[in-house]
Design brief:
Blueprint (H helix, E strand, L loop, with lengths): L13 E2 L5 E3 L4 H22 L2 H8 L13 H18 L4 H17 L8 H4 L15 H14 L8 H17 L13 H12 L2 H12 L7 H29 L9 H7 L3 H12 L20 H18 L2 H17 L31 H18 L2 H15 L17 E3 L12 H9 L8 E4 L2 E4 L5 E5 L7 E7 L6 E6 L3 E9 L7 E5 L2 E2 L4 E3 L2 E8 L4 E6 L3 E4 L5 H4 L2 E6 L2 E6 L12 E2 L6 E5 L6 E7 L5 E6 L10 E3 L2 E3 L2
Helix pairs in contact: 1-3, 2-3, 2-4, 3-6, 3-17, 6-7, 6-8, 7-9, 8-9, 8-13, 9-13, 13-14, 13-15, 15-16
Length: 657
């Protein structure tokens, strides 16, 4: 019988440690290799150039200077470090990169104060003001990413230096905030899910209790409008003092004016209408998810990444304490999101002013913000929902996000990124190597090496397959030998998948997800069709004794489809989009210049045909079809657009009835 790995008290499924799952996939392995060989070292260079690492050198007294960059800069180094540490599980990194990882861990350790405090923005600027503006200045957010990096250190270092650093800081937070009289919580959630990870790693309940306390403070801060106003005014004063200090430092060095921080540039780029939205959403607390108790919430609000990190922490809390009011709120919020506040790519965020959720069905095609970080946060949330409910709709959305809203965030060569992701472009957008706020690149680098964790889970009844990604997995067993399975997948180009059992398995159920886009499925065991099978939700259950070297083949039928979207009927009336399997497609001007692009209309009977082109974008499956003009068009996967320079692009296409 398969072991159930450390299943949480209120989870229905058990996650499998990443070390037991090795991705060997024709599609995703290339992305992992590119991120390991190109993105990881390139990102490290950018972190050096933009003072993220120097801030720690100064804090550790290895270098003289002042803090440079924004108040959240520590978090981006922590996220890069987390990704690098996860890469070491299944990949051999260069000696130079391994040395840098060790050096950065030592640097972080030496930057910590005696009482456990660790935040270079405050320790280098005004330590006496620490913890005075949690709403704006991301102290707890940075602490959360420190803890997540520390969890990733397991297996890399026997000493677990980073874990000790994070425990000391977390202990300080417990002393400071685990107090009913302290009416504070995180302005940017992240600490919540990190505290649960730390609790699971150490079994110390004080971290669980602090997470619960911080979540329950939401909706219970007295005089919320006044509280927010005072924090905003304090932030304005703080920025003014910092700018004066930086200018004086640079003048003494004989240098030119410093560059503005990303936060200042973002606010300067807002229109008057944007400013009104920004102020209203801040003063009513919605931007920070502070306006009401999480138990009384029923819709996603405010800044999307803040919200989705918070919801991840809430589900983690539920998995430990079993408070059904938390789960009920999360399920309501998820339903409202997918029915009324999510784009067809899985992207979320239609209001630039707050990088967040708008009103129901306010999904204007030209306003899609859809931050890459939000897609990654949404994957994190849906993974947790899947573990506690065992509902396939969450695995479906993870798949959709992986291939669309997340994957579009990085260029095919691993060198450039999108921060926000539009659905329509007139050629102004282009990918960038870096951003002043590099949260999206550093988030991308930490999810790619962890991809394997989303493929399988176990339960008392068997093994569950959630994603069709080529991989080898080992399930330690109660018997003397482990159970090993090799999955071979041709996703996303076609739905052919096989499972080879590399060891025998006693009578055990294998649960296979049937994606919501799949209209038919064929199964063969050892070249004989399986007719009798039981459907559990949207999982197919096959229960039998599995012999070594048996091969189970699956064909999940993929056909290009022309679809509409009832979430956004006013904006997309008489328009269609193309989907093939899990992939959303788009049209680029480069492939359709003879069609008067973008003023084109698809034929009522477009005769859609998939054609794999090895010379197109490094090898991709294009969709060819007919226009109302009688000419043909070429569509490419949405994730692959803007990899050939600036170009016009459309996801939605005019349709002739």
């Amino acid at each position: 019988m398969v072991d159930v790995f450390d299943i949480r008290p209120y989870n229905k499924l058990s996650a499998i440690p990443l070390k037991y799952i090795n991705v060997i996939d024709s599609f995703w392995s290339d992305r992992q290799e590119i991120n390991k060989n190109i993105s990881l070292p390139l990102m490290l260079r950018k972190l050096e150039e933009n003072h993220h690492i120097d801030n720690f050198r100064i804090a550790a007294r290895e270098k003289k200077g002042i803090h440079r960059g924004d108040f959240y800069y520590d978090s981006d180094l922590y996220k890069w470090l987390e990704g690098a540490l996860y890469f070491t599980i299944h990949f051999d990194l260069s000696e130079e990169l391994v040395y840098k990882i060790r050096d950065i861990i030592e640097l972080i350790k030496n930057s910590q104060l005696r009482d456990g405090y660790l935040n270079t923005f405050y320790s280098l600027n005004f330590l006496h003001r620490r913890f005075t503006n949690l709403l704006i200045f991301h102290e707890l957010y940075c602490a959360g990413h420190l803890i997540e990096a520390a969890i990733a250190e397991k297996g890399f270092s026997i000493e677990r230096n980073l874990l000790e650093v994070s425990k000391q800081f977390a202990n300080l937070l417990v002393k400071k905030f685990l107090n009913p009289k302290v009416n504070e919580t995180s302005g940017h959630p992240e600490i919540e899910l990190a505290l649960i990870k730390l609790y699971r790693e150490t079994s110390n309940e004080i971290y669980l209790n602090l997470c619960k306390h911080l979540i329950e403070k939401r909706g219970n801060i007295p005089h919320l409008r006044t509280y927010v106003m005072r924090r905003l005014i304090d932030a304005i004063k703080t920025f003014r003092v910092l700018n004066e200090r930086k200018q004086k430092f640079l003048n003494n060095k004989g240098k030119q004016d410093f560059e503005k921080e990303e936060s200042a540039e973002f606010l300067e780029g807002l229109t008057l209408k944007d400013w009104l939205i920004f102020l209203r959403q801040n003063l009513n607390g919605k931007n920070y998810q502070l306006n009401k108790s999480i138990r009384n919430s029923y819709e996603p609000i405010g800044h999307t990444v803040r919200a989705l990190y918070l919801y991840s922490g809430v589900i983690d809390l539920y998995s430990e304490i079993g408070d059904e009011t938390l789960l009920r709120a999360m399920e309501l919020i998820w339903l409202k999101m997918v029915k009324a506040k999510m784009y067809i790519t899985g992207g979320t965020g239609s209001v630039k002013a707050i990088e967040g959720f708008g009103k129901d069905f306010d999904l204007k095609v030209e306003n899609s913000y859809s931050e890459t970080c939000a897609a990654i946060a949404n994957i994190m949330w849906n993974w947790r929902l899947l573990l506690v409910t065992n509902k396939s709709k969450y695995a479906d959305l993870i798949e959709h996000l992986l291939y669309n809203a997340m994957l579009v965030g990085q260029s095919l060569d691993g060198k450039k990124y999108f921060y926000s992701n539009c659905l329509i472009s007139n050629g102004e957008e282009e990918r960038k190597e870096w951003f002043k706020c590099p949260c999206c690149p550093t988030n991308f680098i930490r999810i790619i090496p962890k991809l394997g964790q989303y493929i399988y889970t176990t339960s008392k009844s068997g093994i569950w397959v959630h994603q069709y990604i080529g991989s080898e997995v080992k399930f330690p067993s109660n018997s003397s030998s482990s159970i090993k399975i090799k999955q071979t997948s041709q996703f996303p180009w076609n739905g052919k998948v096989s499972f080879k059992f590399l060891s025998r398995m006693d009578k055990e159920s294998l649960y296979l997800r049937v994606p919501k886009w799949c209209e038919s499925i064929q199964l063969n065991l050892n070249d004989e069709e399986i007719v009798e099978r039981k459907k559990v939700g949207s999982y197919l259950q096959i229960k039998r004794k599995w012999r070594e070297d048996e091969i189970l083949k699956i064909n999940l039928n993929m056909e290009p489809r022309l679809l509409s979207d009832n979430r956004n009927m006013k904006e997309t009336i008489d328009k269609k989009f193309i989907q093939y399997g899990p992939l959303v497609y788009c049209l680029e001007d480069l492939d359709n210049r003879n069609n008067n692009f973008p003023h084109i209309a698809i034929a009522a009977e477009p005769n859609l045909k998939p054609e794999f082109e090895s010379s197109l974008l490094g090898g991709t499956l294009a969709i060819k079809g007919d226009l109302s003009s009688g000419k043909s068009f070429t569509a490419i996967p949405y994730f692959a657009w803007a990899n050939r320079g600036r170009t016009k692009m459309r996801v939605w296409i005019d349709s002739i009835k």
